[in-house]
Amino acid sequence: MLRLHDVAASSNGYKVRLLLAQLRRPYELVEVDIFRGGSRTPAFLEGNPSGQVPVLQLESGQWLPESNAILAYLAEGTVLLSQDAALRARTLGWMFFEQNAVEPKLGSARYWKLSGRDRGREQALAYLQEAGRSALEVMERHLSRYSFFVEEHYSIADIALYAYSHLAPEAGVSLEPYPAVRAWISRVQAQPDFIPGPAPYPAWARV
Amino acid sequence: MLRLHDVAASSNGYKVRLLLAQLRRPYELVEVDIFRGGSRTPAFLEGNPSGQVPVLQLESGQWLPESNAILAYLAEGTVLLSQDAALRARTLGWMFFEQNAVEPKLGSARYWKLSGRDRGREQALAYLQEAGRSALEVMERHLSRYSFFVEEHYSIADIALYAYSHLAPEAGVSLEPYPAVRAWISRVQAQPDFIPGPAPYPAWARV
């Protein structure tokens, strides 16, 4: 059986859990205690040198790190990832955009604020929030014309982009100026087998 | 013929030019004047809502944004991207890591320093440099055990990660503490049909 090394509060992990739910794939969850060094053990770092969750462990025992790579692996052969070469590349393109412009900005700002790591880093936080707004503007520009990110069909690009953009308010970034993004968030939440997430940060994770 | 919308000084663009050279694929280069708004025109934003280079324009006329998605598209069916599902996912995984942990840290810090945009943002710059060092540590950990990023073979994951990591000194981050990364950089530069890059920033791009 597939085994997912993950943390309930991780929205990168939530992407994978959402896709697994929508594909109705059974899996075993291994909760990693990242706040107490569980992802920095020699065994974990051998499977994923970046020391991050989620990691999907295949039936073969192989470890697959990186949430968006896991989405692409699991969605292969399903309607959530096109077989057309150009459409696949556009799907991956939005997922690279997510890892570049959304997750390290809105995701990091959210983590800092929820865990108390923003104290003494006001300028760096303001930079992340401003860059997060720029990413939301790009999404708004696209979603003003299209229902989803690739060809009007819900895909793994939507799952990837939903994970941190819907949490923008927790990063201190309002979604008020982005009506097309808010309408798209509602469409994602209305998909079959949708599950909400991620779980809240545990209070003891605060520094 | 393939048409590449690009800027000589972009290292995201350089990734694509390096791969095209190594695949010996002919293409037409369209130089975009990003420093004077050339990527913010309505026509450009229709093809790529993020307003970023590079964009690959296919023979069909379709626009493919995002450097790493372009790499995956062009490398399909070549030895630079495995056909094995798990190895493909690991290749993409390192490329997502690059867009998350390397490009927005070392790439942004380099851009700020070379263009004068670091003035008044010392704290944010220090954050980017520190995060860039963390990414180089992850790469060092992997490269201490393996010659390349996926299965001991040069792949598009190496092209993606080379683009900004070899420029770390221009971001104000020394490569001295990372001997395995430096040895890997030499191996990448020794590949057949390697071309150096990217071009230096034009002096007039400074603010």
Could you characterize what this model shows?
- The structure is a homodimer of 207-residue chains.
- Chain A contains seven helices and four strands; from the N terminus they run βαβαββααααα.
- In chain A, helix 1 packs parallel to helix 3 and helix 1 packs antiparallel against helix 6.
- In chain A, helix 1 links the parallel strand 1 and strand 2.
- Chain A folds into two domains: 75 residues, Glutaredoxin (3-Layer(aba) Sandwich); 105 residues, Glutathione S-transferase Yfyf (Class Pi), Chain A, domain 2 (Up-down Bundle), CATH 1.20.1050.10.
- Chain A starts with a strand and ends in an 18-residue tail after the last helix.
- The model of chain A has no long low-confidence stretch (mean pLDDT 96).
- In chain A, 49% of the residues lie in helices and 8% in strands.
- The first copy, chain A, is of the alpha+beta class.
Features:
homodimer, alpha+beta, globular
Mean pLDDT of chain A: 96
The name CATH uses for the topology of the largest domain in chain A is Glutathione S-transferase Yfyf (Class Pi), Chain A, domain 2
> Which percent range fits the helix content of chain A?
40-55%
Rounded to the nearest angstrom, the radius of gyration of chain A is 17 Å
Strand order of the largest sheet of chain A: 2-1-3-4
Q: Tell me the number of helical segments of chain A per DSSP (H or I, 4 or more residues long).
A: 7
Shape of chain A: globular
Main β-sheet of chain A, in a few words? 4 strands, mixed
The unreliable regions of chain A are none
CATH architecture of the largest domain in chain A: Up-down Bundle
Count the beta strands of chain A. Answer: 4
CATH C-level class of the largest domain in chain A is: Mainly Alpha
Beta strand % of chain A: 5-15%
